[in-house]
Amino acid sequence: MKKVAALVASIAFGSIASANLTVVTTTEDLASIARSVGGANVKVSAIVKGVRDPHFIDAKPGDMSKLRGADLFLVVGLDLEVGYESALIQGSRNTRIAIGRPGHLYCSEGIPVLDKATAAVSRSQGDVHPNGNPHYWLDPYNARVIAGNVAERMAKLDPTNASGYRSRAAAFESAVDSAMFGASAVGAIGAEKLWAWSSAGNLASQVRSTGKTLGGWAAKMEPNRGQSIVTYHKSWNYFAKRFGLKVVDELEPKPGISPTPGHIAQVVRTINAERVRMILQEPFYSTRSGQTVASRTSAKLVIAPLSVGHTAAAKDYVSLMDSIVDLVSGALRS
Ligand SMILES: [Zn+2]
Question: How far is the CA of 163 from the centre of ligand 1 (A)?
Fold first, then answer.
């Protein structure tokens, strides 16, 4: 009886000492990072669930009511959510999460943006990313930047727990560092130096010169450095840049436009000319074009998760990257 009473008391206490911040994110990747940074001080939910294309979702009343009680709305930005972000914010009738308010954060702050258009382009030309590539979360360094952005915003909204947000962000960064380079290389050399070498493209030789051993994602991807790949959408450019892969073409003729027979024929020529061994594709597009191209070339079609929750194994940010690195390095090795 006593035991039951204690259990009831602890459940009740749990709900009283509930989250200080209610956080809603667009994607599961941001939700995963927000959970790592927020710990027990936050309650986090994502809007884009399951294997969904994050560019195009319908703003549902349930999502709007979720946002009605939110203290913080985390958005990838760079127009990824341009099709539904305003509808969600307006529908929520929660002015605290309006763009520009402390309760709204574009997590792209401080990210060096890839694929910025050199000439003026507009969405009417079919390009869903006229302001640069929003798929920055697939460079693990950028996940550290996101965690820092999220921690500072949580600290601003909930100053009492500021030190907790900052220390958990630091712990998340350390976990990413170890997963990226191996704990022993991080311990011996230091993460900042390793990231700088990685960005300069000479990580392996620099680590070798110290007599230490590289581990983690970087070691798994190292043998593939310099290889050419084709992707379906421009989702993998940050990942490719970090790990030294060259994206030579996409199955989409333009971001957001489905493959056409003429473009497919061109991709086949490119793959044969550049000896491309892999077509890397997101899990929410039709595989028909990829299969056609694979059947006419020696490239393999590889479907990889783009976000947390796309596969059972990709249950948080680090395991998402584990899955992608294993799939890509496995396909390029064999
Ligand atoms: Zn995109």
Answer: 35
CA 183 to centroid of ligand 1, rounded, Å: 33
pLDDT in tens, 84-116: 999 999 999 999 999 999 999 999 999 999 998
> How is 99-158 classified by DSSP, letter by letter?
TTSTTEEETTTT----S--SS---GGGT-S-TT----GGGSHHHHHHHHHHHHHHHHHH-
Please say whether the structural domain 2-173 has been given the CATH code 3.40.30.10.
Answer: no
Length of the chain in terms of residues written: 334
Q: Name the fold adopted by 222-333.
A: Rossmann fold (3.40.50)
2-173 and 222-333: same fold? Answer: yes
Tokens representing 285 are 């597009």
Q: Where are the domains of the chain?
A: 2-173, 182-214, 222-333
Question: If you measure from the C-alpha of residue 233 to the centroid of ligand 1, how many angstroms do you get, rounded to a whole number?
Answer: 6
Separation of CA 148 and ligand 1 centre (Å): 23
Q: How many whole angstroms from 98 Cα to the centroid of ligand 1?
A: 23
Residue 53 CA to ligand 1 center (angstroms) comes to 9
Residues 277-288: pLDDT tens digits? 999 999 999 999
